[in-house]
Structures are given as C-alpha cells and as structure tokens.
Amino acid sequence: MGGMPRSTTREVGGGTQSVERALSLLRAFTEEHPERRVSELVQLTGLGQSTVSRLVGTLEALGFVTHDQRSGLYRIGPTVVALAGVALNQSTVHRQARQVAQTLAQELGLGANVAERHDTELFYLCNFEGRLAPRSFTLVGRGGPLHATALGKALLSDLTADEIRSLIGSQYPAYTPRTIADLDGLLAAITEGRGRGYATELEELAFGRACLAAPIRDRSGRVVAALSVSGPLSAMDLPRRQDELAMKVIEYADQISTGLGYHATAAPLSAVG
C-alpha cells in the first residue's frame, strides 16, 4: 500500500509535538524573567511535571539552557547565544551597519542603534553605547513599538497611510504623556520626518531620553532598516545639538545604504531643526 507507514506517522507527529513543547519552554524565558524554576515552567506551559523535567534535561544537555545548582534556577544557555550570532552574521544589514554604528557611537559619545521591522515591531540588530549614554544591558534582539520610537517612525516612512493603518491600526498604547497614540498624530510625525530626512522621539517611550533616526535603504530604494542616535536628554542636548546630530545620523545611515547598493537619484534631504 502507498503512503507513509503508520509507525513513521506517529514518530513524526510525536517528534513535532516534542519540538513545540521544547520551544514553548524556551519562550518562557523573557527580559522580565530571564531565570525560571521547573515549577514555573510547568505552570506557564501547562505541561506535566515529568514532561517538563525530561525536556529541560534534554535542553540542558544540548546547551540550550543552563542550571544553577545552588538556586535551582534555569536560564538560557550558550547554544542559543551561538545560534543568535549565526543569525545576526547572516544579516546583510547587520554586516553593513555594525562598524558604521560603532563608529557613530564612539564619535558622538551617544548610543547608536540599528533596527529593522519584523511585522508590527522593530527589532534591534546593533546596539553600541558611547561614554555619555552607558547601559548595563544590550538592546540587540529586543523588540520595540513602531509608533513610540524614532527608529519605528523611520521604518514606517516609506509606507502609505493605509498600509500603516493595516499594519498597526489607528490607536496605540501610551508609554508616557508624550507618546503619539493615534494614527493622525503618527502620520503627521512621519510626514515631518520624511521632509527633513530623520525622525524624532522625545520622551515618547521613556522619560528622560531622546532619539533621532534616519532610514536605511537597499538597492531597490526600499526602507529596510533604520539607524538612530540616542541617549539621556542631558547628553543629547537637543536645543543646541539637534542639527548636528541629525546630520550625523543621516550621513551614517546613507553610508549603510550605499553599502547595501542604494544609489540616490536625487540630492539627499537636508536636516533642519
């Protein structure tokens, strides 16, 4: 008889289920909860204690999680870090942007970030901190809202109003009183950014921080990523430095775009205050 033998079908189905369960365990580790106990994993996934213990043991043996014997807590292991490095190194944008962003951070003493859009969120590909804007953690691999960040507005800058509405709707969560929380306000900010060549963010995602971002384009001219400079308000000093910072972020974003094969057909937009 034709078709797959029944025993093989069961093995494939069981294997798929095991993979899904193992991945659900890995997804339980988050920025807010980077360490978990087996009991927490049982509660979060709805899987049985024995199933979770068995899968966690396999994940530990393969290096996907590590176990602290003293605390009993599990955390993400080196295999995940290695795979993340493989993914980043395969990104054309990451390869072109990494050195440029690092140079920008060193030159200005501020944070320099590169992000691309993954569906309805931005996704950080590069993150370098200057002496005036230190962080104790990396942004690489994190997501973020498109409407409340300069990077997000730059990433949306080549979409139409209908495309933006279809993508993220017309009402958005407010993180601070300065957050743009509706489509009309967002479209106005994006239009302003198109006109001057860079987008802005002033305490829209977090108090005391500001950001300027410019789009990065590929060979076709499509916006595929964005480059930003960011930091505390005191370090950014926008009343005095906004034009300077904007020109730098546009210049460095253009370098990355050129590396991706983009050639502007018209003179670049100038930054204005």
Descriptive notes:
Strand 4 (111-118) and strand 5 form a beta hairpin. The strands form two sheets. A six-stranded antiparallel β-sheet has the order 6-5-4-9-8-7. Strands 1-3-2 form a three-stranded antiparallel β-sheet. The chain is of the alpha+beta class. The chain is built from ten helices and nine strands. It is elongated. Helix 1 packs across helix 3 (49-61) and helix 5 runs antiparallel to helix 10 (238-259). The model is unreliable at 1-12 and 266-273 (pLDDT under 50).
Give a brief rundown of this model.
Helices cover 46% and strands 18% of the residues. It is built from ten helices and nine strands. It is of the alpha+beta class.
Structural features:
single chain; 273 residues; alpha+beta; six-stranded antiparallel beta sheet; three-stranded antiparallel beta sheet; 18% strand; disordered C terminus
SSE string, helices as H and strands as E:
HEHHEEHHEEEHHHEEEHH
Question: Spans with pLDDT under 50 lasting ≥5 residues?
Answer: 1-12, 266-273
Mean pLDDT: 86
Number of helical elements: 10
Task: Tell me the Rg in angstroms.
Answer: 22 Å
Estimate the global geometry from the Cα principal axes. Answer: elongated
Q: Count every beta strand, where a strand is a DSSP E run of 2 or more residues.
A: 9
- How would you characterize the largest beta sheet? 6 strands, antiparallel
Structural class: alpha+beta
Helix content: 40-55%
The amount of beta strand, in percent, is 15-25%
Question: Strand order of the main beta sheet, please?
Answer: 6-5-4-9-8-7
Distance between the termini: 75 Å
